[in-house]
Amino acid sequence: MCGIVGGIGNADFRSYILGGLKKLDYRGYDSAGIAYRLNGKINLIKTQGTVEKLDALVPDFQGADIAIGHTRWATHGVPNEINAHPQVSMNALIHIVHNGVIENFRALKTKLRSRGYTFRTQTDTEVIADLLEYHYIQNGKKDFIKAIENTMDELEGSYATAIILDKEERLYFMKKASPLLIGVSEQGHFLASDCVPMMHLTDKFVDLDDMEYGYMTKSELHLFKNHRQIPPKFVKRDVDDFRYDISGYEHFMLKEIEEAPYVLRRLADNYCVDGEYTFNPDMLESIRKADEVVFIACGTSYYASLFGVEFLNYMGKRATAYIASEWAYRPQRFSKKPLYIFLSQSGETADIVACQKIVNAEGLKNIAITNSKGSTLDRKATYGCLIYAGLEVGVAATKTYMAQVGFLSLLLGALTGSHSAVTHLDALIDAVRDIIERKEAIHELAKEVIKAPSLFYIGRGSDYNAALECALKLKEISYIHAEAYPGGELKHGPIALIEKDTPVIGLISSPAIALQLRNNIEELKARGAKTFIVCNASLSNGTDAFLTKEIKPYLAPLTKVVFGQYFSYYVAYEKGLPIDKPRNLAKAVTVE
Ligand code: M6R
């Protein structure tokens, strides 16, 4: 799971490649590298660590005609300089950057060893470079496209690659199951894992499909599939969708938490115009006709989908949610006419893409709700819907979670014919603004737990969904072990973990569960826990740690999630952690 970028022509390649990699480091940031050809010589610079570290190592270079770059999230081989990309073939004919995983790389290594190859790294990518080189040498260095075809025949797994071949004035590429876009401009041809690095150069793109390959020169693009040349299909992308601007904030995460009100407003404006919902009527009909709605998602998006299940259950519709990596290997089917909903910020999460392939192979209808127009899930879905949250740079999903649940609430409104969904969302926006104004109070609370080794969030009903998301945020950003439990469940085992000063945060969004949750908190307090309650203002008993404005109970848990987002942010801030790029993570998880 990595980001790749490349180009051929007469652009300022230093700024394009390094700037592009910075925009792609949501895909991984444990090592980075660049190769560029200047005056006929290929220069290769790689480092462990971030693109910023690479930037400091790359000299000013003008006049390069071709360049490729890579930011890595290690899958095979530790993140060090040798394993960083670009990888070079044994005889140095090929420099390659790769995003994906070659599943049969061990078998291919054995094969290549018998062909005289030895290996320099622990990566699977080296195998691609050597295979390409082997086939190219085999055909007398006459036909590199043929070498790509032979290589693709041998590779199993996923790959988006950019390839510089020795002295050739061409940039080659091949793609299977990892995203790759080509940008076409006056200055040349460019490629990248998403369009953001290229947006300042062009708005004209080709979204490559699986098993496509080819090459580009400064002025030409040659695309192939199944041994035949095919015409490229150009698409436009709007530059406004991709603002990459920290706007004076210290971290993208903080900025993005505080964008929630705008995002929710835009969502409502998109899906409800002049009092009428704008959802595709066929899609609504498909949901109505389905005998079960199955949500499939990962991480934060999975926790957002739990609200989707509740909303649909509320209208009497059977609905379930599965974690994609589980469902993919054990597809559950308990209904005759299921409708699948894939919820994903990036639209590229490999575990979900694998599920969508299964669903599509069976000819079953599915909806992809993403924040990324033209992403794999969006393109392959029967119905693609956008949450219009704008680019989210922080690895921790914040505003997109709000937009996902906001979208599902509007969908519920459209399905039930209720016009109050937008009014309820307006109240949520107001409540979030109120939390933003009082965020310093959350900062103070956060200071009380920075030394804690672990923390519990408890909630009942929908607050348990919120607790799950709050605990995930704390784990990934502040590295504090956090668990979410339904309030009544701790006494069945986990209460054994409570000792003096173990922090426990209780969430209360509904009068129906307020008393019970308070009792659960008392049980924990009696065993030494340091307890905090985050509660709707009207349900407060005057001793609570933080109050949220009164809104409809089905949306009120979202105010607790905003509390949890800030809380994680401030804990990480006080601990001096790299908030936007927490260790071991990547924004888009494009490996299964
Ligand atoms: O792009 P997706 O929504 O499919 O990503 C799913 C998860 O990888 C993602 O939500 C992850 O859990 C976030 N880091 C959470 O903040």
Q: Can you tag this structure with a few keywords?
A:
592 residues, alpha/beta, 8-stranded antiparallel β-sheet, 7-stranded antiparallel β-sheet, 18 helices, 27 strands, 36% helix, globular, binds 5-amino-5-deoxy-1-O-phosphono-D-mannitol
Protein architecture, described:
This protein is of the alpha/beta class and 592 residues long. Helix 9 links the parallel strand 18 (292-297) and strand 19. The longest helix is centred in the last third of the chain and has 19 residues, at 556-574. The chain starts with a strand and ends in an 18-residue tail after the last helix. The structure holds 5-amino-5-deoxy-1-O-phosphono-D-mannitol (M6R).
Q: pLDDT under 50 segments (min length 5)?
A: none
* Assembly state (oligomeric): single chain
Beta-strand content: 15-25%
Counting DSSP H or I runs of 4 or more residues, the number of helices is 18
* First-to-last CA distance: 9 Å
What is the arithmetic mean of pLDDT?
A: 94
Question: Residue share in helices?
Answer: 25-40%
Short overview:
The chain is of the alpha/beta class and 592 residues long.
List the helices and strands and how they pair.
Elements: E1 2-9, H1 13-24, E2 31-38, E3 41-48, H2 51-57, E4 66-72, E5 87-88, E6 94-99, H3 105-114, H4 125-138, H5 144-154, E7 159-165, E8 171-176, E9 181-185, E10 188-192, E11 204-207, E12 212-216, E13 221-225, E14 228-230, E15 234-236, H6 252-258, H7 260-271, E16 272-273, E17 276-277, H8 281-289, E18 292-297, H9 299-314, E19 319-323, H10 324-327, E20 338-344, H11 350-361, E21 366-370, H12 376-380, E22 383-386, H13 399-416, H14 421-437, H15 439-447, E23 454-459, H16 462-478, E24 481-486, E25 503-508, H17 511-525, E26 530-536, E27 546-548, H18 556-574
Parallel strand pairs: 18-19, 18-20, 20-21, 21-22, 23-24, 23-25, 25-26, 26-27
Antiparallel strand pairs: 1-4, 1-10, 2-3, 2-4, 5-6, 6-7, 7-8, 8-12, 9-10, 9-11, 11-15, 12-13, 13-14, 16-17
Helix pairs in contact: 3-4, 4-5, 7-13, 7-14, 9-13, 9-16, 14-18, 15-18, 16-18
